[in-house]
Specification:
alpha/beta; Rossmann fold; 3 domains; 8-stranded mixed β-sheet; 5-stranded parallel β-sheet; 19 strands
Length: 507
Amino acid sequence: MRERVVVLDFGGQYNQLIARRVREAGVYSELIPHDAPIERIKGDSLSAVILTGGPDSVYAKDAKDCDNAVFALGIPVLGICYGMQYIAKIFGGEISSAPVREYGHTAIHLSDHPLLNGLGGVVWMNHNDSVTRAPEGFSAIASTDACPVAAFADEERRLYGIQFHAEVTHTENGKVLFENFLKNVCGLRCDYSAANLKDELIEKVRAQVGSGRVIGALSGGVDSSVASVLVHEAVGEQLTCIFVDHGLLRENEAEEVMRVYRDTLSLNIIKVDARERFLSRLKGVTEPEKKRKIIGEEFIRVFEEESKKLGGAEFLLQGTIYPDVIESGTGSADTIKSHHNVGGLPKDIGFKSLVEPLRMLFKDEVRALGESLGIPHHLVWRQPFPGPGLAIRVLGDVTEDKLQILRRSDAIFREEVKTAGLAEAIWQYFTVFTGMRSVGVMGDLRTYDYVIGVRAVTSTDAMTVEWAEIPFPVLRRISDRIIGEVPHVNRVVYDITSKPPGTIEWE
């Protein structure tokens, strides 16, 4: 039976990383709202519970809580930041506003405890309150100069807490803490791997679909590709993939998608030319979320129409993955942005049900699954591309003229990254039509033309990213070529914002 850890989401900004770190350590995890009933928390084969951080004070009138029956299950519970303070409150400890707010890199003093073995001497703190007195039965196992109880443990009740954020990369060897918790404290096998999920997911698809027909939304991206190959292996010719050319694709992308997925992967695929349709719906629309919802709805309508032409289909296949679900809102944390296949879907869809076999997988898990399905390496590691396409890389209203500028600049950028041998080292890289115009001088003449933004990031799961440190000579070639080869561009800027506080896309 699969080991399973539930991460209760109290609304903190790093919570998705906790679920990610647990999976990296070899245990399947789920991020669910803090107020989920105990029946949902327990589920099947519950091995441990983790309480996340959050923005509240545990003493606030509307402070978030959970079903305290989790503490009576006899399984280990780990609280992080707010989660630690919540445990302290429940069991009679004291929490107070810290005289000095700890934020950022903080030196920590560690005791000899299995939870902390191998952890570095610097952690990432982000809190106003702290535990000033541990509850009876708990022992302080770490401290900082400003926080006397930076971690505690109650071995008898199997309850643990850390004030710092081990899930972020800023904590030295932070990943080790999760390995310690799962292996040393919980005694788990830690044998979970997404690459081993193929047979399980295929059986789930077969059970859901039965003899029904499936329309597959195939964008050509990694997620929809892996989902399509998986479902094709599960139900064969019951699946018909639909590739919609919405006019928001990169240079030569439509032709490439059809060649690869029809000829290389032998999928039953139909191309629909909907360029005028999408651009008409987007005319004059500037607000990012409205763009996403228009595109999401229009996709559904196209799929409905194509389904009727094929004699009807009961199911719609989507390449939804776990970060899509998390960023579209868990019920505890704020919605970062609606994804076209999650928060951007219309309420009424002409299908019996959605088929989303990758819904609980992170991006690198999707890639591991793709390789296990026999998808060629270069396709599995193809750069991510958002469902709404270039519409969310054109700031402001979307026009064909702006798209042409964006396509050409993006193609140049991608060519230079590949030539420099950086294609697999960089998670995602693209250009942005900023909509800004600036004064320049070209050929001894004054110009007043557009600014193109260049964005390149490194990541493992898209939940957090760092900007890619592209060598200056490469950046110079990119800038020179874009300005020299793309009409109406006289300035190129490089975005050096991490996530958080930014997002990968600009919209």
